[in-house]
């Protein structure tokens, strides 16, 4: 099976884990702090504004909790997002309000967001689809002008660049997922950035039970009666650990290698599929933008998309569509909404395998199978 994603881990990561085993310190400790500092340097932000967590989903929930969102508040997010963002909003008691996206980039513009703002809007969550930064600079500026908190779901854009800056550093808070499908993986894990210093302190406290000070050995060295608890507000345990942080440090060093190979694969797909008239390939990036190539997507007539995916699966190629429109999910209470760009894209888009483990021959195989399926399905159904 040629998989959509595949983690790239090897001897370096295994050696780093062995060192943690030898240290006998497996939990949240020095390697966690080192990984946070390394990621802060990558992002161009202070290390103490970065938190290593047990998942990106935990980061989204923590963003909503740290901001104190709740009943009567609204949070705007694109319908084409991962469901964790909507879940985090709903659990808080706030209301998710879905905006439309461009049907080609699957990213929202400021106009899309502005169209659904109300006096109750407290925050905006933006996903960088497939690693494309989108109009994040304008969105960040407009949100700041209006006093609306901007949360960047940067799970797709680790390795992307916009005007010399990293996506995730432009908003007020940001979250990255490091699960096994992501460009940089720790198996499970996540990162969070908080711009405001006081909010960063609060987020870190909430991520570990709400404790002002941990009650372990480190605090024992600086405090009398270190076992006594100070819990000004209730939190949960969302922190990462040194085992997974050690993997993350190696993966972060390998990030340029990962993104370079993804770029080569995307270029090869473009070359192999350039003359397939029935397919639309990802649009060109604006000047100053670089993508992580987290997704490589194609778009075709809605009448054949599902059948093409089934043909590829039968031939040993796993494709999918990410992300299914959230405004169509009854749980979120917005099924009455009509979002033309989102609905157009969701019926026509297919994400192809892209990860550094693919060989050039794998990519050519996927492209050839796709060409064959599109041609046969087009003839069969008389579309095009």
Any overview of this molecule?
With 384 residues, the chain is of the alpha/beta class. The protein folds into 2 domains: 11-253, Type I PLP-dependent aspartate aminotransferase-like (Major domain) (Aspartate Aminotransferase, domain 2), CATH 3.40.640.10; 255-381, Alpha-Beta Complex (Aspartate Aminotransferase, domain 1). Helix content is 39%, strand content 12%. It has 13 helices and 11 strands. The protein has a 7-stranded mixed β-sheet, sandwiched between helices. Strands 6-9 form a two-stranded antiparallel ribbon. Helix 4 (83-92) links the parallel strand 2 and strand 3. The longest helix has 22 residues, at 360-381. 46% of the residues are buried.
Topology:
Elements: H1 11-23, H2 30-43, E1 50-53, H3 56-66, E2 74-78, H4 83-92, E3 95-99, H5 110-114, E4 121-127, H6 136-146, E5 149-153, E6 161-162, E7 173-177, E8 190-194, H7 197-206, H8 217-220, H9 242-253, H10 255-273, E9 289-290, E10 296-299, H11 305-314, H12 340-346, E11 349-352, H13 360-381
Parallel strand pairs: 2-3, 2-4, 4-5, 5-7
Antiparallel strand pairs: 1-8, 6-9, 7-8, 10-11
């Amino acid at each position: 099976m040629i998989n959509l994603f595949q983690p790239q881990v090897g001897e370096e990561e295994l050696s780093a884990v062995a060192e943690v085993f030898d240290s006998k310190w497996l939990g949240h400790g020095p390697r966690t702090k080192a990984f946070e500092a390394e990621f802060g340097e990558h992002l161009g932000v202070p290390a103490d504004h970065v938190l290593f967590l047990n998942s990106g989903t935990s980061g989204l929930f923590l963003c909503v909790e740290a901001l104190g969102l709740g009943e009567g508040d609204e949070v705007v997010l694109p319908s084409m997002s991962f469901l964790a963002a909507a879940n985090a909003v709903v659990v808080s008691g706030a209301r998710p309000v879905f905006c439309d996206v461009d049907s080609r980039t699957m990213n929202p513009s400021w106009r899309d967001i502005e169209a659904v703002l109300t006096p109750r809007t407290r925050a905006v969550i933006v996903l960088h689809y497939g690693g494309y930064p989108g109009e994040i600079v304008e969105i960040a500026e407009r949100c700041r002008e209006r006093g609306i908190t901007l949360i960047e779901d940067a799970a797709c854009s680790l390795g992307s660049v916009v005007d010399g800056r990293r996506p995730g550093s432009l908003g007020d808070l940001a979250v990255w997922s490091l699960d096994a499908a992501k460009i940089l993986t720790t198996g499970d894990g996540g990162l969070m950035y908080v711009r405001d210093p006081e909010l960063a302190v609060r987020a870190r406290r909430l991520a570990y039970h709400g404790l002002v000070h941990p009650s372990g050995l480190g605090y024992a060295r600086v405090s009398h009666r270190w076992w006594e608890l100070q819990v000004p507000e209730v939190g949960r345990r969302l922190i990462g650990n040194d085992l997974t942080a050690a993997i993350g440090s190696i993966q972060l060093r390998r990030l340029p290698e990962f993104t370079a190979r993804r770029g080569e694969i995307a270029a090869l797909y473009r070359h192999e599929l350039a003359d397939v008239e029935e397919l639309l390939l990802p649009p060109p990036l604006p000047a100053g933008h670089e993508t992580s190539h987290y997704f490589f997507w194609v778009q075709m007539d809605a009448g054949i998309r599902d059948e093409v995916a089934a043909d590829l699966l039968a031939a040993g190629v796993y494709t999918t569509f990410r992300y299914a429109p959230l405004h169509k999910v009854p749980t979120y209470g917005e099924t009455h909404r009509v979002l033309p760009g989102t609905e157009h894209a969701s019926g026509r888009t297919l994400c192809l395998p892209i990860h550094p483990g693919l060989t050039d021959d794998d990519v050519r195989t996927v492209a050839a199978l796709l060409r064959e399926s599109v041609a046969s399905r087009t003839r069969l159904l008389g579309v095009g």
